[in-house]
Amino acid sequence: MNEALLQEFRFDWTLAGKSPKTADTYVLLLRGLIAADAAGSLTEAKQWVSEAAAPPSRRKRGQAIRAFGKWAEDHSLGLLEWWRHVPLAADVETPQETATVDDFKRALQLATEPRHKALVCLLWTTGLRRTEIANLMTLDVDLVGGHLVVRQSKTKTPRIVPLAPMTRKALRPLLRQSESMPLIGMSSNAIRQFLARKGLPSAHAWRRGWAVESLKAGVSETSVRAVAGWSSGAMVARYTRKLSGEIALEEFQRAWLGGA
């Protein structure tokens, strides 16, 4: 295993539509594996994994080895053939803050400027990331079509995001400016500071809230994934796992009412 193979692994990972950030993390960890001279056997790899200080770090090391091992196997490279036997540390979940309808109502009351109101509506009804909102330009919004285009995303893949009626109304005053102007006019850090200053949930909490509320409203997981820019259902499950019982209850109640 050498640097050239690591870069080829990274290229194939991103070309498959998977997260470039994850690929970079795996490559960085695999360099550590090589530097520790621990890629020669399963025992050495296990020891290297176990030396990480915390369970999440040990899990990430194991995932990096498994990802590269599977890729090497698929390409018949004869490397890390024992990759399946590398254990993954338990994924200890911490409580994740999730924005609610009450948070949205409070945020609207605290939004004293048109751009702040538009920001709140975007967070609640689109599930956009902070950086994606910060990178939006006026020309990215199509009020007639009822959508906006995210041209710069975490996965480097553009996508279309539907706009709720309230969000279209909130965005309308901002569209009077030049098409080449930033839509909100706030950097990612400025958005973070605004939310913190107002005592509002983080942008990730709004993204989780959007996913939960969308599923509760009957939007399919496929559509949620497409709009959020997730390549698999894993992120949907991660964001909604703690509230899955509540979501299921509402779905059954809708089904019973529909059959009444």
Please provide a written account of the structure.
- The chain has 260 residues and is mostly helical.
- It folds into two domains: 3-85, Tyrosine recombinase, N-terminal domain (DNA polymerase, domain 1, Orthogonal Bundle); 101-259, hpI Integrase, Chain A (Orthogonal Bundle), CATH 1.10.443.10.
- The protein is 57% helix and 4% strand.
- The protein contains 13 helices and three strands; from the N terminus they run αααααααβββαααααα.
- It has helices spanning 3-15, 20-35, 42-50, 55-74, 101-110, 114-126, 130-135, 165-171, 188-197, 203-216, 221-228, 234-240, 244-259, and strands spanning 141-142, 147-150, 159-162.
- The protein has a three-stranded antiparallel β-sheet.
- Strand 2 and strand 3 (159-162) form a beta hairpin.
- The radius of gyration is 22 Å and the shape is elongated.
- The N and C termini lie far apart (62 Å).
- The mean pLDDT is 86.
